[in-house]
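Comment thread on ticket #2218

A.B. wrote:
> Attaching the input chain for the structure job we discussed in standup.
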Amino acid sequence: MAQSLQRLYGIQHLVALIILFTTTFATLSFAAPIDVSPDTSSLIARHGQCPSIDSMRQHIRNKGMSTNTVFYMKPASAMEAGGFAGTLTPPGKFFGSFVTFDDQMNWVDACGGNTAEQEKIVIHVSIALAREASGTAYILTKGAINPTSIWTRYEFPALQRNPRIIEVHEFNLDTQTYTLIWRGGDIPTLPENVV
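C.D. wrote:
> Ran it. Output below, let me know if you need it in another format.
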């Protein structure tokens, strides 16, 4: 009799587990279908698809902008851009204000190993930052402006088309001099490049 009760209890337990799993999978299958459409409202990792410029813009908006935005061109460094941004009133923001190393690694993972797409991450963030900027923008340089730089090809053209930009100044770190290079409302001098 004790063995029969144990066997009966085991069968009841097994039936309960089967019902539980069946109910769970049926609920997941019918009540919560998986959405496979691209999501551009946030930086959700999507295998094989890097974050768009618009999703990068949302990422920047979520972190808050300043009326002073600092860009830099190599050989100037992120550290110098951050230091310069801190001297502005109100304090400026730069690439490093919005993008952490972890952000970059997550975005690389989202690209799913697609090297051509991974190479666009910095360009997408740069364009997004230029489109979200307002007030005064600064480009930190050491020497002459490189005509093939991200600044010349993507950031500056986007700033020239941003109606919230009042002025763009070059600050040469070597000479410690400012040069006004563009005013809001001027005709754009550079073509906007597509990525």
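A.B. wrote:
> Thanks. Noting for the ticket: The chain has two domains: 1-34, 53-183.
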